[in-house]
Structure to design on (185 residues):
């Protein structure tokens, strides 16, 4: 999701001494919805994984599934996500930042800094607008908080101030003294 991928998959494979290297029993591609977060995708994939596991067990038992050896070619490992990976770099383009927010929701979470405090961003939308990256372009009690990026603008749809519950961007604007022209970072 962070890289803007639109497709992922589920693979059921046999265990082997090497990590993720066992023979493949069943694979299925899964489309990533354009607004889907990592948490929502995980929920879908765990259900799909359970369904495929039952199919694999049945297939192995009745010999209708043929194990396929995995190739070592092109194998990559996903890096462990650290909290700092969630820091929003407003000099990136709006679409990439939105994908970061989606891909790190719910954990470890995307965040920025405002008045020396962590401000988690749980959902955002790409909108039209131009300005200095990280600068608050607009605050509106009905729509929320607009922040400029290197290319485009983000409407922060769901925010969580440090030590508080999640809230809509509009609720944040109504309850906190943030002003147009302030800088996030």
């Amino acid at each position: 999701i962070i890289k803007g991928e639109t497709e992922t998959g589920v693979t059921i494979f046999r265990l082997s001494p090497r990590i993720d290297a066992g023979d493949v029993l069943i694979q299925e591609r899964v489309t990533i919805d354009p607004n889907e977060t990592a948490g929502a995708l995980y929920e879908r994939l765990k259900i799909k994984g359970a369904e495929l596991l039952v199919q694999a067990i049945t297939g192995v038992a009745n010999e209708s599934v043929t194990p396929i050896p995995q190739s070592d070619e092109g194998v990559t490992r996903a890096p462990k996500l650290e909290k700092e990976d969630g820091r929003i770099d407003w000099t990136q383009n709006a679409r990439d930042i939105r994908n970061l927010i989606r891909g790190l929701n719910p954990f470890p979470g995307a965040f920025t800094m405002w008045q020396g405090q962590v401000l988690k961003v749980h959902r955002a939308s790409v909108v039209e607008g131009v300005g200095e990256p990280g600068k608050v372009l607009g605050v509106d009690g009905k729509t929320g908080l607009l922040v400029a990026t290197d290319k485009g603008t983000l409407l922060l749809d769901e925010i969580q101030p440090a030590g508080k519950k999640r809230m809509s961007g509009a609720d944040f604007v109504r309850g906190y003294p943030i002003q147009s022209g302030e800088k996030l970072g």
User: Anything to note?
Assistant: Residues 35 and 102 are 8 Å apart (CA to CA). The beta strands are 7-13, 24-31, 110-114, 117-127, 136-140, 144-148, 153-161, 167-168.
